[in-house]
């Protein structure tokens, strides 16, 4: 049971997902500060309002309000988070994987021996072991 848990945790995609969630949560305050401190005042100045959340408000009958500025601030926040995740995490990891694949295709060993094997590498090793095991002559059994 412990070995199965260890294998589950050591899978690359579980670790990557955990890191992404933690870094994303930690980076949220930075992105919110950028949106609140820079983009909100700039956009609010265009609409002559004190903040983006208070701009582009449409008042409906019965004192109901539609806050288009608030929605725009959320969209900007989302785009900033997505851009940071892509340029800081996804793109560098993709470049690293591409470099590893080029080295593997050229027949060179991986640059770092501590890099975990990919699922394709593990499946290839399993296939080779099964093929080698199937090719061994069976001894000690009587024919049927």
Low-pLDDT parts are: none
Order of strands across the widest beta sheet?
1-2
Strand content: 5-15%
Report how far the terminal alpha carbons are from each other.
Answer: 39 Å
> What Rg do the Cα atoms give?
27 Å
Tally of DSSP β-strands: 2
Reported for the largest beta sheet, the result is: 2 strands, antiparallel
Helix content: 55-70%
Layout of helices and strands, plus pairs?
Blueprint: H1 2-10, H2 12-46, E1 57-60, E2 64-67, H3 68-105, H4 119-135
Antiparallel strand pairs: 1-2
Structure in words:
The protein has 144 residues and is mostly helical. It contains 4 helices and 2 strands, in the order H-H-E-E-H-H. Strands 1-2 form a two-stranded antiparallel sheet. The longest helix is centred in the middle third of the chain and has 38 residues, at 68-105. The model has no long low-confidence stretch (mean pLDDT 78).
Give a nutshell description of this structure:
Helix content is 69%, strand content 6%.
């Amino acid at each position: 049971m412990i070995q199965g848990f260890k294998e589950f945790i050591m899978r690359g995609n579980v670790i990557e997902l955990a890191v992404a969630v933690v870094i994303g949560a930690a980076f949220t305050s930075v992105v919110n500060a950028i949106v609140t401190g820079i983009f909100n005042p700039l956009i609010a100045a265009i609409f002559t309002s004190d903040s983006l959340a208070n701009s582009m408000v449409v008042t409906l009958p019965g004192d109901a309000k539609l806050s288009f500025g608030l929605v725009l601030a959320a969209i900007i926040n989302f785009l900033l988070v997505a851009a940071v995740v892509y340029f800081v995490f996804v793109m560098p990891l993709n470049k690293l994987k591409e470099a590893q694949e080029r080295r593997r295709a050229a027949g060179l060993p991986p640059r770092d021996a501590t890099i975990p094997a990919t699922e394709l590498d593990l499946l290839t090793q399993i296939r080779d072991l099964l093929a080698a095991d199937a090719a061994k002559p069976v001894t000690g059994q009587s024919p049927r």
